[in-house]
Amino acid sequence: MASKFASVAAAACVLVSVALLARTEDPKPGVDWPSFRGHRAAGVAEGFRTPETWDVATGKGVQWKSPIEGLGHSSPVVWRDRIYVTTAISGKGDAGLKPGLYGNIDSVADDTPHTWKLIALDKKSGKTIYNRTILSGVPAVKRHLKSTHANATLATDGTTIIAMLGSEGLYAFDMNGKQLWKQDFGVLDSGFFQAPAYQWEFSSSPIIHDGVVIVLADVQKGSFVAAHDAKTGKQLWRTDRTDVPTFGSPTIHQAGGRTMVLVNGWRHTGAYDFKTGAEIWKLNGGGDIPTPTPITGHGFVYITNAHGKSSPVYAIKETAKGDISLQGDATTNEHVAWTAPQSGSYMSTPVLYGDLLYVTRWQGILLAFDARTGERAYQQRLGEGGAFTASTVAGDGKLYIANEDGDVFVIKAGRTFEQVAKNTMGESLFATPAISEGVIYFRTSRSVIAVRR
């Protein structure tokens, strides 16, 4: 009998241990940066001093620099003591990216076999912990001159790593790179809806919330938003959308006791119920190639897009319901608190920092708005131009804004413009940086670079 009880007790201990190991931990503020733009896509990390100046060429302020083979706009994600990125390696010696302000819609002609990889780096040293091949083959769709075949940023909850590779599938790994499951969505063809032959590749990043993976796939045919179980990959719900290809990522927001999934769009910006996928509200209009991700704060959902005529910034009440589309020349209604026409961002997701909403336009114009009223605090050009694709991040009272040429502008947060520094990374830069414990991790076209105070 004693032996039987001992066996039962031992089994119970094993089950408890497994449960503890499998338990998802909450991100540590200022330490973990678990998905695109960190927790809830806010782009803010506080609690640590962050750098103002550094020099990559001389190594001043550079904690480490690690080369990454191939191309990827997959931003670094951070969980505890590791950095994770994906990359796609072309069969060509130099697949190439073309930075700058131009309107070429061409696809890159590269039908060589590619290799997609998941890479984990030590956060303090930059040393490779593992470099895992996910798959190899010829990409199902082409990419834009500024795009890569590994655009989407990873998502992690400390137990599972989710990689969305568009037409190549949705993958789940454990923290040591072991594949857990895969979901195949078929060809997800993103590109210019007015010229479907031009393919630009997939870019919407997945998110994880409460053990559920959320994927947004606005493509030429069969757009949808869907939820999958993070442990098994099982589809929990899928809601069809009627939008053109879009390139932003979903966001989770909680208000009024309800959890919702927020998405940007042109024909259908909106919110969906996290548990069921049912539509909560929708907004029609704005830019027709929406790329920025929704962000939230002060009781509002902030949406912006800038391709097309209107280029708006919207502040939508988090209590919105139904069709909240603006009629005629209206800039407000019962659900839209304020709108800033001709002020939106084409590529970069804004950052809400304190009481101000900062919007970086593609041409390098920074606008600061009172987040509650929409009153413009200032408008200022950064440097001498260039294209700005990476999203703004903030911490320690400063904004970090990078252009495609690799120049990083450090701006003091506040109602008046004050540039603290301009730093050059030495390589083109499209991916949004991550911040962890005061260190900023930049993914350039060839490297991951850690800069510190």
Overall description:
- The protein is mainly β and 453 residues long.
- The protein has a single domain (27-451), classed as YVTN repeat-like/Quinoprotein amine dehydrogenase (Methylamine Dehydrogenase, Chain H), CATH 2.130.10.10.
- It contains 1 helix and 33 strands.
- The strands form 8 sheets. Strands 14-15-16-17-21 form a 5-stranded mixed beta sheet, with no helix packed on it. The chain has a 4-stranded antiparallel beta sheet with strand order 1-33-32-31, with no helix packed on it.
- A hairpin with a 2-residue loop joins strand 2 and strand 3.
- Mean pLDDT is 94; it is low at 1-23.
Characteristics:
453 residues, 5% helix, 5-stranded mixed beta sheet, mainly beta, 37% strand, 4-stranded antiparallel beta sheet, single chain, Methylamine Dehydrogenase, Chain H, globular
Provide the spatial order of strands within the biggest beta sheet.
Answer: 14-15-16-17-21
Quickly count the helices.
Answer: 1
Sheet with the most strands, sense and barrel status: 5 strands, mixed
Unreliable segments of 5+ consecutive residues: 1-23
CATH third-level topology: Methylamine Dehydrogenase, Chain H
Mean pLDDT: 94
CATH fourth-tier homologous superfamily: YVTN repeat-like/Quinoprotein amine dehydrogenase
Task: Please compute the radius of gyration using only Cα atoms.
Answer: 21 Å
> Helical proportion?
under 10%
**What spatial form do the alpha-carbon principal axes imply?**
globular
- Ends: how far apart? 63 Å
Q: Structural class given helices, strands, pairing?
A: mainly beta
User: How large is the share of residues in beta strands?
Assistant: 35-45%
Tell me the name of the CATH class: Mainly Beta
Quickly give the CATH architecture: 7 Propeller
Query: How many discrete domains?
Result: 1
